[in-house]
């Protein structure tokens, strides 16, 4: 390898593309739900909240994207050669070095936000590496890979938002909501697999559409999204929050209407259903966060 190649540095635009800013929104939204659900005013905590948003999106999720692209570089060279690493815009082993650097920066910031935040971030990073890196490569199986993404993108982010505000482990009702919306997000992750069925078959990735077939996987995705929301509605009613329960029920019914059309043409409508259905889903998340915000922090 020549000295010129060794010293070649990727352009900032290529690095930004590798970090995939468009993927940062879900965990940043879930983090915001955690902040709201704590019921505590921002007050002097706003710098910590901003740091938490940076941690969840531009650091943790960006790390997972870089790790994934690095370990998928050979597959991407066939299916998506225009991506930064296979195209050579991220040269040499820069993809790996960036993955390590972003992991270190994530841990450094998380360590300043409290023990519970650091613990959640550390577990999330371990899952990010296990999701993509051999020999484990959780992404090879849709059950495990989707679960890892769902819990980190939704549950850990929600937990982190509440923990940042409270300064300790959040109360059980917050943890329950974070868990339920994480469980539903498993179905959302399955929706993302419909666009790559052919490539998954060719490369041996056992996504749920590959394992179960298109129609069965589509039905499962809808059920997995819906059941946790039904439980949330029941909890909100039990907690004396009928207005927010009605909001979550309304967005669930709207998702059901969209799902009918999706189930008729799963492959053609998966991206459409994901875009509209997930928008409704996250509205319900925030409504649930608002519902418990008046419960207050544990004594």
Automatic annotation (TrEMBL):
It holds the Pfam family UbiA. Coiled coil: none annotated. This is Homogentisate phytyltransferase. The chain crosses the membrane at residues 46-71, 115-131, 143-166, 172-191, 212-239, 245-263, 275-297. The lineage of its organism: Bacteria, Pseudomonadati, Pseudomonadota, Alphaproteobacteria, Hyphomicrobiales. Its main location: membrane. It is a multi-pass membrane protein. GO terms for molecular function: transferase activity, transferring alkyl or aryl (other than methyl) groups. One of its GO terms (biological process) is chlorophyll biosynthetic process. It comes from Rhodoplanes serenus. GO terms for cellular component: membrane. Keywords: Cell membrane, Chlorophyll biosynthesis, Membrane, Transmembrane, Transmembrane helix.
